[in-house]
Design goal:
Strand content: 5-15%
Radius of gyration: 18 Å
Helix content: 40-55%
Low-confidence stretches: none
Order of helices and strands: HEHHEHEHEHHE
Mean pLDDT: 92
Shape: globular
Distance between the termini: 30 Å
Amino acid sequence: MLSVKPFAAAVHDADEMERVIEQFARASDGALLVLPDLFTATNRRSIVALAAHHRLPAVYPFRYFVAGGGLMSYGIEVLETYRQAASYVDRILKGERPSDLPVQQPTKFEFVINLKTAHALGLDMPEKLIATAHEVIE
């Protein structure tokens, strides 16, 4: 059983972001779970760079964090949500009322691992974990 102690940190600017990431890095066995929102999306390069600088393993909400050097991500497949939105637009343009359309939830999720980042952090990724990934960046 894992012994995980979550610590939430609201971050509103670059200074707070740097302090919080440094704080997580000081903790033994510290790691970072980045949640999806506008702030993290627009500051993704800085977040990934700070995590790398402090050698802090991090899990991100979207593939583009990992493509930019992050360790791993698990989240919705963004392009699929755009496809779903397009079907809604099509139905509205054909005369359906938006208030009559059902709420849709994401249906596709993706798990991406960046092995180059894992090696830079000194992490050995288990083969079973790598096998479950939808994409492995080497």
